[in-house]
Amino acid sequence: MGIADIVPSGVIYGADVIKVYKYAQEHQFAIPAVNVTSSSTVNAALQAARDIKSPIIVQASNGGSAFYAGKGIDNKNQQASVLGAVALAHHVHTVAKHYGVPVILHSDHCAKKLLPWFDGMLAADEEHFAKHGVPLFSSHMLDLSEEPLEENVSISKEYFKRMAKMHLILEIELGITGGEEDGVDNSNVDNASLYSQPSDILHAYNELSEVSPYFTIAAAFGNVHGVYKPGNVKLHPEILGGFQAHVAEKKGSAEKKPVFFVFHGGSGSTEAEIQEAVKNGVVKMNIDTDTQWAYWNGLRKFYESKKDFLQGQIGNPGGPDKPNKAYYDPRVWVRKSEEEMIARLHEAFRNLNSVNVL
User: Whose C-alpha in 31, 74, 122, 325 is 20 to 30 A from the C-alpha of 191?
Assistant: First the structure.
C-alpha cells in the first residue's frame, strides 16, 4: 500500500496531511518542501514530484509571494505578499490534480513583523472554507523564533485556534536557524542559540496539543539558511531523537516519534546528516537556495551553448538573415531553467528516500 491508497491527488488538507506525515515517519522518508516564486517554478516542482512518484510540499515565502503578484504592486501592509500568495495558491489548485500527486500547499517563514501577511492569508482561507469546506492552503508557518519562547508559543497558539477551525496545519520554529531568509535575519546569533532544548520542544508540544494535533516543529540542530560548503555547518540531527524520546516519556506516549519535525537550512548538508534527521522524525525538508541556483544554471548553460544565436533577433552562424526566435522565445529558455530545477529536485527526493512512495 502506498500514499495514493490513503490520500487523493491534488491539494490535500488536515487529516490527509497528517496521514502523509505518519506514513513518511513509518517508512523513513521525508518530503521536499520547495520554495516557488512563479508559475514556472510551481510547474517544475510538480513535474519533479510526478516523475519521482512522490507527494510534494509547494511553499511560498513572503518575498516570493510579493514577487508572484508582481513588482509593480506596492507591498504596503503586505498587500502584494497577500495577493501573490493567494494567486499562487489558486494556480496550484488549478493544475495540481492533473500532475497526479498529493500536494501540500504551504506558506513559509512569517516573522512577527510580517503578521499582516499571515492575517491576509488566513482571511483567504476562511473565505475559501466558507465556499468549499476546505481552506485555500494546507498549512502555514509562524516563525517567531526571534521572540522569547513564551511569546513565540502563546502567539502561535492563539493563531492556531483560528486555524484549527479549518483543519489547517501549523508549523512553528523553536530555537534559531542561522543565516537570513525572507525577513528573518539570524546571521550573527550565538552558536548556542542554534540548538533547541528538549524542555522547549515539550512546552510547545503541550501547548499546541491543547488546540489540535495538526502541527509540526522546526527544531534547531545547528541549521543555517543559505549555501555553505559541506562541513562548514555543524549539524547534530541526532539530538532530534533525544527530543522525541523526551516528549514520548513525559507524555507517556507509546509512539517513539510523537513529533513531526521540519528541517530548515539544509543547503550543504551531507547525505548522512539528512538520513539521520529523517530517521529521527523529520517529515519535511525545505529546499530553496539549491533550486534557485539550478534554475539560474539552466539558463546559464543554455546561453553558453547558444550564445551565437542570442546576440540579435536576426543573424547567426547560419547566415546574416537567419532569425533567432527559436532561441530567445521565453518558452525555450525558461524551460531550460525548469529542466535544471527538476533535475535538482530529483536529487532532493532521492536524498530524502521519497521515491516511488505513491
Answer: 31
